[in-house]
Structures are given as C-alpha cells and as structure tokens.
TrEMBL record:
It comes from Salipiger bermudensis (strain DSM 26914 / JCM 13377 / KCTC 12554 / HTCC2601). Residues 36-148 form the Cytochrome c domain. This is Putative cytochrome c protein. Transmembrane segments: none annotated. One of its GO terms (molecular function) is metal ion binding. The keyword Signal applies.
C-alpha cells in the first residue's frame, strides 16, 4: 500500500537535518486500524477487535506494547533489525504491522513464508511452536504497530504501565508455569 504523503515525507526528511521523519506523519491516530475502541483485561483493541496500542500523553506505554518491545528484541530483531526497522536480510516489520492484515501477519509468523524468484529470495521461518513468540504474538504486533505509526520512537519505551495480575496469569498459563 502506498501512502499519499510519501513524496511529502521524503521532502520533509531532506529539509530536517536534526530529526527523523517517521510514518507517524502519514498515519493518523484516528485511523480505525490503530485507534483504541475498547480495553479488555489491560489489552486494547480497535473496533474490529484487532489488538492495538495505547500510549498516554506523557509517553507511558501500555503493558502489552512494552512486553512486545522486549519480546521483539529477544526473538525478531536478529533478522528484522532493531525496532522493526528492517535490514538487508529481512523487511521492516514496523511497516508490516501497519500494511498487512492482522490475520495475515499472524499467519506468516505462525507458518512462515518463502518467496523465491528472480528478484527475491527470502525465507521467514515458522514460529508456531515457539512459546517465546506465540505467547506474546499480540504484544509483538502492538509494539510494531506503535512504532510503525510513530506513536513511540526507537529504543526502549521510557515509561510503561505496571504488569497486571491478569497478564502474569496469562503468561504463566501460556508458558506452562
């Protein structure tokens, strides 16, 4: 999907010497694919029931987004680069979280994907049996969505909500503790 502000962003990036232009300039927080419609047990969802992030005005991120930052950097950044920025080896997942349908994103992570052709040769391994990914897949997704939209910058979020008892119980159940 091509965003209409691509050329504008490129021009702004050239004009700004000390700062980086992010996808936030092209993505509205009112976008129904990002906007929080409801909260359930400390997790936030769009009106379509898709996990999303919640960042307070002071920059405090919700627990799932912070958890996603941690899990992404434990499992995904080796190929996809720090903060989902992409690498010469794998695409920028911060963009995939915005451009791909949530269910397609989950399918690729669970089952993997292989693209082989004259112009492209890439393999995404399947992570469907890795509890370090699967128990936190929605967290990873919301983190990438938050960073891809520009709601949070690069690096570890400075402030986070406390981890709720509900999240601790879900984590223990999923990890078999």
């Amino acid at each position: 999907m091509t965003r209409p502000f691509t050329l504008l962003l490129a021009a702004a990036a050239c004009a700004m010497s000390a700062s980086v232009v992010s996808a936030a300039d092209a993505v509205s927080m009112d976008d129904p694919n990002i906007a929080v419609d409801y909260e359930e047990g400390g997790r936030y969802f769009t009106e379509d029931g898709i996990p999303t992030f919640n960042v307070a005005e002071d920059g405090t991120v919700d627990w799932p987004t912070f958890s996603g930052f941690r899990r992404y950097h434990a499992e995904c950044h080796v190929c996809h680069g720090p903060d989902g920025e992409g690498s010469t080896y794998a695409p920028a997942l911060k963009d995939s979280a915005l451009d791909m349908d949530y269910y397609d994103f989950v399918d690729v992570v669970v089952n993997g994907r292989q693209k082989v052709g004259a112009a492209e040769n890439s393999v995404m391994p399947a992570f469907g049996t890795n509890p370090n990914v699967m128990c936190y897949l929605d967290d990873i997704y919301t983190y990438l969505k938050a960073h891809g939209s520009g709601a949070i910058g690069r690096g570890r979020p400075a402030q986070k909500e406390a981890k709720s008892e509900t999240f601790s119980e879900m984590e223990d159940a999923c990890m078999g503790s």
